[in-house]
Write a structure and sequence with these properties.
- The chain has helices at residues 18-24, 43-58, 81-84, 107-119, 138-142, 149-156, 177-192, 206-219, 234-242, 252-262, 266-286, 300-316, 320-333, 371-383, 396-403, 450-461, 466-469, and strands at 2-3, 6-7, 29-35, 65-70, 97-101, 124-128, 165-170, 197-200, 225-230, 291-295.
- It is α/β, with parallel strands linked by helices.
- It folds into 2 domains: 2-333, TIM Barrel (Alpha-Beta Barrel), CATH 3.20.20.220; 371-469, no CATH class.
- It is globular.
- It binds iron/sulfur cluster.
- Iron/sulfur cluster (SF4) binds next to helix 16.
């Protein structure tokens, strides 16, 4: 059977999943990320290239290794990773990860793709909502389907005869309380929806990676985490500077360091990036991560070099204090927080590996909420307290006037602090995407991200818990 380029083979041993086993047994796992090429590439050519990458990975025998197949980093039109994955050897599919994107895919289509992945031996699927890209208009994105990763995870929840091993993503590199907490709350929703592990977005701030580990331990969520690391090239650096990599940001200090590394020669720049990768890989292992996913490797040879460098770093750093000292020297040169946003959830990060004794949480200042915002919230609450239980279209004109109603198939205003989720270009109702800017604005509209606003309202109402507890059902998007 052939579906959308996926060859159904049904040769799957449901009890065999080496990726899950290595996480369960605490074996540090290294995944090598393969970006799918654009859809102008023939799937057969993409498959051949993937086989070469897999061959390089299968040569690694001293730590668990696999591939992570993702969509294209900086553009929308890439081949479907699930389709290209069919080129991989049938006996090793349980080592690999496939990212399932909700961009321009309905939940029904995603359910079908997930079933086909499973039938082909790919049980390790990571749910992502998908990105918007520079050059796309807000109107275009509002007319696009973005299936929320929280809802995709519901499809992947392990059931009888469906031994999925699903993962969820998080962007921990947020530097205000209003942007950091909603990311964590959404991750917890993902665990509650069945995610068995988390993959962190690219970033270079190891304090933030420790913050993620500590926060999960603090909350009692002892789930494995995998850190996504990016080997920078001059071309990727330029793309990040232009804002072409959704959700990936560099502080001004770190950019200055990278520019100084670039000043002399490409070789010197590359040497500095390999060293940075070594430090991060060893740090993740010492901080309790279950693995890393390395991106930016554009050839099988680079995979082999990365494996050697990572192996050497594991041997070089076996003590957290030695590693922290080396990293601290490096961090002094490059402050990672994007000034003036410098919030970390804990005050004593890096003082030790594990959050025992219980870490000291940073005091969060009261939310900034103007009187007009407060009156507007109270007015909407007075007007539409039961909107989620009413027929769609009820009080449409009043909702349009006072809450920018977009006439969804199911109103969610009372569940979202009376902020319409359709004001988000992706229509996300269960938490933010990873692309919120450092100042809390939306990466796509430059207006305040709706979750920044909800967080401020939730703090004021003393109802922050609702942001992680309320699971809001999907609605159909209406093209406008
Ligand atoms: S409003 Fe927030 S969640 Fe929606 S796309 Fe913008 S940054 Fe992402």
């Amino acid at each position: 059977m052939v579906h959308d380029g996926l060859q159904l083979e049904i040769n799957f041993d449901p009890d065999k999943n080496r990726f899950r086993a290595s996480l369960d047994h605490g074996e540090f796992t290294v995944l090598f990320e393969c970006q799918m090429p654009g859809d102008d590439t023939a799937p057969s050519a993409a498959g051949e290239r993937l086989k070469e990458f897999e061959y390089a990975v299968l040569g690694i025998d001293d730590f668990p290794a696999g591939l992570a197949l993702t969509g294209r980093l900086t553009a929308a039109n890439s081949l479907n990773p699930a389709a290209v994955a069919a080129a991989l050897s049938t006996g090793n599919r349980d080592r690999h990860l496939i990212f399932l994107s909700g961009r321009e895919a309905t939940l029904e289509q995603l359910a079908e793709t997930a079933q086909l992945c499973l039938a082909n031996g790919f049980a390790n699927l990571v749910a992502v909502t998908g990105n918007t890209y520079p050059g796309e208009t807000v109107k275009e994105n509002r007319n696009r389907v973005f299936s929320d990763s929280v809802h995709i995870l519901e499809l992947l929840r392990p059931r009888e005869k469906q031994p999925f091993f699903p993962g969820g993503v998080i962007n921990p590199f947020k530097y205000t309380p209003e942007t950091a907490f909603p990311e964590y709350f959404k991750l917890i929703k993902k665990f509650r929806q069945g995610a068995a592990f988390a993959v962190a977005q690219f970033g270079w701030d190891m304090l933030k990676l420790q913050e993620l580990r500590w926060y999960l331990a603090y909350r009692g969520y002892h789930f494995p985490t995998v850190a996504r690391l990016l080997l920078l090239s001059p071309e990727l650096l330029e793309k990040i500077r232009r804002g072409d990599l959704p959700g990936v940001r560099l502080s001004a200090n770190f950019q200055a360091v990278l520019e100084s590394e670039l000043k002399y020669s490409r070789n010197q720049f590359e040497a500095a990036q390999w060293r940075r990768l070594e430090l991060q890989a060893a740090g993740c292992r010492l901080l309790g991560y279950s693995g890393i996913q390395i991106a930016g490797l554009n050839s099988p040879d680079k995979i082999k070099i990365a494996a050697q460098r990572v192996r050497a770093a594991f041997g070089e750093f076996i003590d957290f204090r030695d590693w922290a000292q080396e990293y601290a020297e490096y961090r002094v040169k490059a402050g990672m927080a994007p000034y003036p946003y410098q919030f970390y959830l804990f005050e004593d990060l890096f003082s030790r590996v594990h959050p025992e004794p219980v870490p000291v949480m940073t005091a969060v200042p009261p939310p900034e909420l103007s009187n007009p915002e407060k009156y507007s919230y109270l007015f909407r609450r007075f007007m539409f307290p039961r909107a989620h239980k009413q027929m769609p279209g009820t009080h449409y004109f009043a909702k349009k006037l006072f809450a920018s109603c977009q006439e969804c198939s199911h109103c969610r205003l009372p569940q979202t602090f009376y902020v319409c989720p359709e004001l988000c270009p992706k229509g996300l109702a269960n938490g933010p995407c990873g692309g919120v800017n450092a100042d809390g604005s939306c990466e796509h509209t430059d207006l305040e991200c709706i979750y920044n606003k909800m967080m401020r309202l939730a703090e004021w109402r003393n109802q922050v818990h609702r942001l992680e507890e309320e699971l809001i059902p999907p609605v159909e998007r209406h093209p406008r």
